[in-house]
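PT: before anyone asks, these are the final sequences, not the draft ones from last week. 611 residues across everything. Please model them as a single complex and drop the result in this thread when it's through.
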Amino acid sequence: MNRFLRSTLMVLLIWFSAGWDALWAKNSSELIYTEPFDLASGGTTLTRASQEGIVFANPALLPLGGAYVRWIGLQLGVIADTNLANSKSTKLGEGDQGNVANTLLSRSLHLGQTATLSLLNKNFAFSVFDRIEVDAAGSRFADGGLPAIEFGVEAYGGGLLSFATRPTRWFSVGMTAKYIFVGEPSILVPLADQEKIKKFAEDPQALKGDLKYGKGMGGDVGSLFLWQNPTVDLSLGLKVEDLGGTHIDNGQETIPQTIHTGLGLAIHGSTEVLHLSLDYRDAANAYTEEKTFKKIYMGARLMIRQRLGFAVGLYQGIPTVGLRLDAFLFKIGLTAYGRELGQYPGEKQRNLVMLYTSLGF
Amino acid sequence: MHRGRQSLCHWTLSFAVLILSVCSSLVQVGCGTQSRATSYVKLTPLEKARKALDEEDYPLAIELYSSHLADVPDDYPVFPYLAAAYAGAAGFDIVAAATANIGSEGSTSLLDRLNAFLPPDPTAEQLNSMLQAKIVILAMPEDHRDRNNDEISYASGAALQLELYQTSYAIMYLNQFTEVTVDGALDISRLQDMTPADVEVILNNLEEIAAKGGTGVPAGAGEIVAKVDAQPGDTRRDKLINYLTPKPSP
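LR: through. Structure below.
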């Protein structure tokens, strides 16, 4: 336990020692926040999303709920990689010496947490959120051809305000204004370069050149086309994320405008719903480096008596699965999913597990 | 009271780990964690090369990186990867060398420290691969392999690569003429086959690294050269042989 804490603290200390005062630009078309049960459904969000995640998913989904007040509550989640979970131990180091560097060269360490506090009704929603994920992994041949440990952080936070309307039965539209903090810094610590390590250890301020964060205001516009009959719904979701680009201060790159499209098919009875969905993100290829597989999300979610949810999917091609129990004021769920942090499948795949709970109504 | 709280904390943590374990087992048994995108994603030649390098398929990595540099000769960020592939093909274990902190100054000489990560009896192909590793780094513009250049992310690493590869080349070259017996002692009989030209290759490479100055590998190389120069003998060959000949214990 102590070793685990020391290792985690080491990661965080390296990070905090730089002062947090510079960051990073978003470098992927992944959403800044995806609700955990939506993650279990392959990360599909454009045609159906859990209440806690609607403002991040597609604001046009707001008017689809039956109740006037859809959700007021808090959701908290913790994320760990399956390597850590499967070790059935909180020890990171292996062997007597507990050599963290050697361990990270053989497997990654990924930890994170999320929190949202939201208020939603049929036409209006407000949410504040934060999400931070820390990733540490070794590479035999990092930048410069030498082994290094790469410490990466994805940190987002802010507030979102959404409005939506459903002028006809078959169409709804919504928009979101957001004020966000965003950063994805990455620090490469070469194992062989003792002079560089010494330089960082003696002068953490030297890291500041690599660590920059910023904040900015932006907006999303979403729409949903819906065809419904008593047992089958067909839906088409369209969303423009970061309309016109979200400008981030502190000299960071602007988050580019991205266009997402999604298709949904729901088969429902009186209390059960099976929803199949397929999202294609960044259709206009704003993130030019991203391959097509990273834009495709597909999944299925089954809600039984509106209380028990089961979801499976493919998130960027990586299998996902999740369970959620809704006990009115209290929800709890588990999601196992994977993300590809690299450019091609398997380059930097992280297999993750998320445990989350919601309190609200 | 404190112990009770500690026990509760430990129990809670163990319970959380157990739940996460059950869930991750569920997904692994149910559908695995292997990306289903692997079969239909086309990799670029550079991505294929990187994958080959990570999988330690050095011949393929060398082929792909070399082919890329033939088309884009000034793509300098790629040079360190090609050099790393050559060094890997030469039998140099970069991870073992790096985690053993090879550049640090210690009680053992750089010769002994590096020898632990080099083939003891290198083949001609291995020696040539290490030479190629050195040549690839030297083909980069000087400011792209400058330890003090913070503007280029790979410059410092490339400088260190050159130090390691050039020193390793000198030591591997020397290893052609040395043999360690089964009881760990140096068999010096083959040293007599060393020509003056061979000695120049070994010492010139070490001197070039020592001339860069600084701690770590250059300091270690400088120490070897200084000790060789301090040996008795009329020629550099004699001095090197004297340096390598084990001294009787007092």
